[in-house]
Amino acid sequence: MKAFAYVTPQSPESAVELVRDDGRFYAGGVDLLGEMKEFLATPRTLVNVKALPGSGEIGFDAAQCTVGANVTVADLAAHPRIIGALPGLALAAAEVGSPQIRNMATVGGNLAQHSRCWYYRHRDVHCRKKGGAKCFARTGEAKYHSLFTGCMCVSPAVSNLAVALAALDARVCVLRGRGVDKLTVEELYASAWTNPLAHNSLGPADLILRVEIPIPAGGRSTYMQVSEKSDFDWALVSCAASALVSGRSVSRVRIVLGAVAPVPWQVAEANQLLEGRTLDDGLAGKAADRILRDATPLEGNGYKLPIARALIRRSLQKLVA
Amino acid sequence: MPWPKERKYLGKPMPRVDAPDKVTGAAKYTTDVLPAGMLFAGIFRSSWPAAKINSIDLAAARAAPGIRAAVVAREGPRRARYYGEELAAVAGVSRQAVEDALRLIKVDATPLPFVVDEMDAIQAGAPQVIEDGPNFTRPAARETGNVSEGFSRSASVASGAYSAAVELHHCLEPHGNMIAWEGDQVNAWASTQGVFSVRDGLAESFGIPQNKVRVICDHMGGGFGSKLGFGVEGALCARLAKAAGAPVQLMLTRFEESLCVGNRPSTFQKIRLGADKDGRLLAFDMDALGSPGFAAGVSTAAGGGGADIPSPFIYKVPSARVRQANVAVNAGSARAMRAPGHPQASFGMESIMDDLAAKLGIDPVEFRLRNDPMEIRQREYGIGAEKFGWKEKYRKPGSSPGPVKTGIGCAGATWGGGGGRGQAEVQVNPDGTVEVRCGTQDLGTGSRTVARLVAAEMLQVEPSGVAVRIGDSLLPPNGSSGGSTTTANIGPAVFNACENAVAELARLSGIAEPRGGRWLEACRKIGVNPLTASGRWQPGLSSQGVGGVQFAEVDVDTETGFVKLRRILCVQDCGLIVNPLTCRSQVYGGIIMGIGYALYEQRVMDRTSGVVLNPNFETYKLPGPADMPDIDVILLDMPERGIIGIGEPVTIPTASAIANAVANALGVRVSDLPITPDRVLAALGLVSGLRPSWAERPIPA
Fold first, then answer.
1. Which of A233, A262, A310, B217 has the CB geometry, 3.0–4.6 Å to A227, for a possible disulfide?
2. Are the beta carbons of B608 and A136 separated by less than 8 Å?
């Protein structure tokens, strides 16, 4: 990798100031160091944000959970109150990488991680995400790529936490300039759909501070994924779901898919389809049909459709089980 | 067999002699050898899958801070034939200096058309991989018996198309050396399976006498056949060390391990198999091809190896026609890989065996018993089926209820093994301690422990009193560690050296039986100079030709395509078991490698850019702890056969058994390895818009 300067600011404001000098925020380093080793990123400065006050804490009040950006994925997965109140988030965290990766990886880093597309990550392939002329995956080896492809770059969003947090209607608090924006997960990723160079909607000096997650009474959540291996593998497709549940009747349903589009994939119509209904496998199948209706698979990744369908049905069943 | 009937140490579990050193970090691997003034080095590689290399400009790299030497891999204009081929190398005072300098190398190149897909490469008009030859030649078919008559007499004929992807060795310790010149003497610390083959390769490439080269390998982290030779990376390291006048360490990175240090060739097999109504095989016909990379089986600097496979493998088919071809593609060259050719042959043959058994309505184990000519495997199928509960578990293909279907499968294998060229020296000291010296190396099979156990047994001394020196080309030559021959070489050589030492000790001490109670007394009479005796491999202490069978049980989720391997049972013949612990360790390793071949591993080449798309452990998927099934190992202890190697046979049938279990669960076959969820779902007919299968494309005449 290229040599770099390393600084450790004590406040978010100075972190943002320091990162403007061709810098990158550095927390767990899981994603960033890989990019630097491949010379995909050659920052002049690494701004270590791990020391920012309060950024490693998980807090609860009556209706909300607040997770600092520097909480590790391992701590999130093992936190008893998260497991109790927000099981979908704990399950998603537990599926991230390996124990070693979860020990280092942070919530902020997981949300802000860059594309895992093997063309993008290859040091000698100059793809569209790196400013090149073409998306190699669109006509190439697209086994791990998006099902929803009406965009310029088809590398999928693979953050497990983003999928789970989207289903939980979480807000991601981002320091932008002097103010803090509270973004939905959809807003956090929107640019990845419209701009092939973007991995998410964060500007170079935007810093994730924390995540706020509502905890509604009667709310349930879950998360599941299918990978090629039993552990330490990316999801081929992931699915998070949440709802207010009473018996087998559900309302305020959220179903979100991961690894199928450059953004966590949610279809409002499918959520509404289930509003106030008693859930059975037929209805779950209808929701799956609606979510997957507009999929335009690439050569070699159509197999993700049956997996997505199975995960949607199983997640919904699990919510009311 | 002259091995003692009553054995005190042989066959008893003994932890590896070097285990404490390995777990504490005291064991010295090549990267741990850091002499003062040592330089680091790195290789500049072709970023083109095919190109004319007109010139390479090293001036800026040479002038970079901390750089002490830079060399081109080959002088003058040349061609690069795959992404990652070595073009130049630099050595400098730090890894960072080397990495920075590599980025300053300028190449004037003319990119050429390339082809990385086997089925593309065999079509007319495909880019030519090798300048002066076709990508593909088809030798005539070999035919034994009358195949057309065999098929016409068959009551049932199965046909199928089976393929397996290129598998990479991915030794956990990458390839590399630390090389130091001292005048006209050169010393190399190599991660190698052959200290003598590296010595000879080094001597040859520099035109220096073999007795001016010393190669040391105290410990190494896996080879699997890919570390038998000196390699391009070894030659570049030695040249840099010479040019810089300083020791140089050149270790490859994980990225490079994916490109240029060998692989198991791909295989594509179209097979027909016929049998009579009683399930006796009558005819076999195979048209196969595979790619061993750019050289298409021509030897490269570190060996090579073709893509030919020994089909129909273990089965006796009265008539057989086999036609196979090697295909050149713009990709790194194959090297020997744990039982070269055999897992490929096993997979195709055992697959069609089950497909035919299903057509005939015969139980797969029963079908094998009717057609497997080896008495040992016949026995093993009996033992294994009983232990596995085959009869109770077996259902007709696809008849397991529910969305998650259970299936079972089996497969058999054989391998040569055996020794033939081992040498060793035994030294008995006046204080009664013993040293064994043997110019072998420990590929991971526990060579030190083997030598210690044999010496302790033959001299009747405590194992802790036996020191073992290996991994040095100054020691008695013992051959490379390949072909599952190491233990069968070391054992008899040490046996013979001990016999000679005992005879010499009896003569020197005047004690007719110096072993046992009078050992110390005899040793004290040796005098000041310790006694040494040499030994050679002797016939009658080892043999070859093992039989093994494996059974697999899987759960397959028919909605997601996910395969969960539940259980592997291995019944394996391995002659005299020297050490059950290291023996089982080899069996586990072989099975785990077979699991990777079955379910996870494949090198993915990109047709558009020509690069390896998964040069890392993120997307080149190796099985991990969570993927492990229960593995039961039953070893048939047959001391009367002497020592037989075990490393290779145990990896051969694993993938075949798993593939058969998946086919049994689903009722349809996933005929391409690895069996990943996308392929399972495709086989179930749940995926549309699939790329046409390779099997639908013609193989030109």
1. A233
2. yes
**How large a percentage of chain B has pLDDT more than 70?**
99
What is the predicted pLDDT for the residue at A94? Answer: 98
Query: Are B541 and B643 spatial neighbours (Cβ–Cβ below 8 Å)?
Result: yes
pLDDT > 70: what percent of chain A? Answer: 100
Please tell me whether the interface predicted TM-score (ipTM) of this complex is above 0.95: yes
A87: exposed, middle or buried (C-beta count within 10 Å: 0-12, 13-18, 19+)? Answer: middle
B629 touches chain A (CB under 8 A): no
Query: Which of A37, A52, A67 lies at the terminal end of a domain, its last residue?
Result: A52
Given A140, A303, A306, which is nearest B606 (Cβ)? Answer: A140
Question: Which two three-digit tokens encode residue B389?
Answer: 């509960």
A-chain residues within 8 Å CB-CB of B564? 230
Apex CA B452: angle with CA B448 and CA B455, to 5°? 140
Domains and CATH numbers, chain B: 19-28+419-536 (3.30.365.10), 33-112+172-222+227-257 (3.30.365.10), 263-417+543-696 (3.30.365.10)
Which residue in chain A has the smallest CA separation from B607?
A140
Report which residue type is found at B52: K
A230 lies within 8 A of chain B by CB: yes
Can you give the pTM of this predicted structure?
0.97
pLDDT of residue B690: 82
Q: Which residues of A touch B625 (CB under 8 A)?
A: 231
Q: What are phi and psi of A277, to 5 degrees?
A: -95, 160
**Over residues B396-410, mean pLDDT:** 97
- What total number of domains does chain A contain? 2
Question: What is the per-residue pLDDT for B137?
Answer: 79
Q: Give the whole-angstrom CA distance, residue B293 versus residue B166.
A: 10
- Whether A294 is in a domain gets the answer yes
- Whether A260 is in a domain gets the answer yes
* Percentage of residues of chain B with pLDDT beyond 90: 93
pLDDT band at A268 (very low <50, low <70, confident <90, very high): very high
CATH of the domain at A46: 3.30.43.10
Helix, coil or strand: residue B205: helix
- CA-CA distance, B432 to B447, in Å (whole number)? 23
B interface test, pick of A138, A230, A301 with most B CB neighbours within 10 Å: A230
Query: Is the Cβ of B676 closer than 8 Å to some Cβ of chain A?
Result: yes
| Interface contact B621-A140, CB threshold 8 A | no
Banded pLDDT at B700 (limits 50, 70, 90): confident
Which of A52, A76, A95 is a domain's end point? A52
> What's the pLDDT tens digit per position in B307-328?
889 999 999 999 999 999 999 9
A85 touches chain B (CB under 8 A): no
Q: What are the chain B neighbours of A232 within 8 Å (beta carbons)?
A: 624, 626
Q: Cα separation of B171 and B168, whole Å?
A: 9
pLDDT for res B238: 98
Q: What is the pLDDT of residue B300?
A: 45
B681/A140 CB distance under 8 A: no
Q: Which domain holds residue A11?
A: 1-52
Check residue B420 and report its DSSP letter.
S
Tell me, what's the pLDDT at B302?
41
| Span B173-190, pLDDT tens digits | 999 999 999 999 999 999
Contact A284, B665 (CB under 8 A): no
> Which residue matches tokens 């590599």?
B102
Residue A97 inside a domain? The answer is: no
Mean pLDDT of B554-575: 97
Residue A40 lies in a domain: yes
What CATH code is carried by the domain that includes residue A249?
3.30.390.50
C-alpha distances in Å from residue A176, one per residue of A45, A196, A201, A211: 19, 22, 11, 15
